[in-house]
Amino acid sequence: MPSKNDVIAQMNDIFRDVLDNDDLEINAETTASDVEDWDSLSHIQLVVAIEKHFRIRFTTAEITAYKNVGEMAEGILKKLPA
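and the corresponding structure tokens:
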């Protein structure tokens, strides 16, 4: 079972790819307002890429409830098989 930090590291690669920014560094506290190109359209692209990468599905309620990257990482961990 990966750790929260493992998940965030994998998410960082996804964020760099989707937002086309090789210098981007996200952490558990990162929010959309912290990242220049993270808007509503790229948010959808990020969610889709994360779902594909981890082979999971988020509900709309889950997506809107996440306040930062760390909360999303915890949501991913809950969905991964044990």
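(Above: one complete record from the training split.) Helices lie at 4-19, 40-54, 60-65, 69-79.
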